[in-house]
Amino acid sequence: TLLIIGAAGQLGTELTAELRSIHGNANVIASDINKPGNAQLNEGPFEMLDATDADRLAAIIDQYKVTQVYLLAAILSAKGEQNPRFAWQLNMQSLLNVLEIAREKKLNKVYWPSSIAVFGPTSPVDHTPQDCVMDPNTVYGISKQAGERWCEYYFEKYGVDVRSLRYPGLIGYKALPGGGTTDYAVDIFHKAIKGEHFESFLSENSYLPMMYMPDAIKATIDLMEAPSENVKVRSSYNLSAISFTPQQIFEEIKKHKPDFTISYNPDYRQKIADTWPNSIDDSRARADWNWKHQYDLAAMVQDILEQLPVYHNL
Ligand code: VAH
């Protein structure tokens, strides 16, 4: 069985659904510190779990005979800057608990997401390579950089088959994100559908690497199903799809919603966005396990504007 920690989150909601469609509802245990917002998570086993509680984690793994753990619980970049010590504690303690239990109980596989937030102000900014200077200056980025080192350590030293992806900003319409710097690109759709004005908390030219959720889900499944010997990067793989600015996604939406309007009011999240790359070189993922993205900006906008109203009964 598989255990998803943080199953009620933006990524967890969609990854749990996909893994249940592959492995069967009963074989994927969803867990989160919050009760599930949507009924969907109750289509299979659900357990309340604080990701920093190692004893409860071990008990759940024993109870359900868990062989794979997906650790998706984390405090994201923007929220992390409001509460640095808590963000560090949650992001690191949860990972160290999972890696240690994976070693002790010889779990088959572990998945842990990293992020383009591992790059910092002096990292190369265009087509940022897999290996380069990384000087993240958000607690979230620091925790992801440290976490990547721990993943590689547990793989090299103990043979734990832990795998990881450096996600760009993830854009989905099913579950709301929590506390990210790229979340403007989710909120903009909800405003467009309701015919409301959109105020962007990033400036119009903030060009950031982004990815439509279906691509992120596909990349995660492809990586986890790849033969272990093909997974040559054991820190975390660069992953790329599209890059766009708030103005570019606004213009694309406007093609479908001619009356849509936007204004720009950068806040503290602008400083975070300014330390991140414009684009990512993911040639290693494309070479090692045949990664390729499906959705460009136009296709993503078209799909979300069609699906969001139906999914949320708007
Ligand atoms: C965040 N959505 O904004 C996350 C992600 C690259 C961005 O890590 O913090």
Automatic annotation (TrEMBL):
InterPro entries: Epimerase_deHydtase, NAD(P)-bd_dom_sf, NAD(P)_epim/dehydratase. Residues 3-238 form the NAD-dependent epimerase/dehydratase domain. GO terms for biological process: L-threonine catabolic process. Gene3D superfamilies: NAD(P)-binding Rossmann-like Domain (3.40.50.720). One of its GO terms (molecular function) is L-threonine 3-dehydrogenase activity. Belongs to the NAD(P)-dependent epimerase/dehydratase family. This is NAD-dependent epimerase/dehydratase family protein. It comes from Marivirga atlantica.
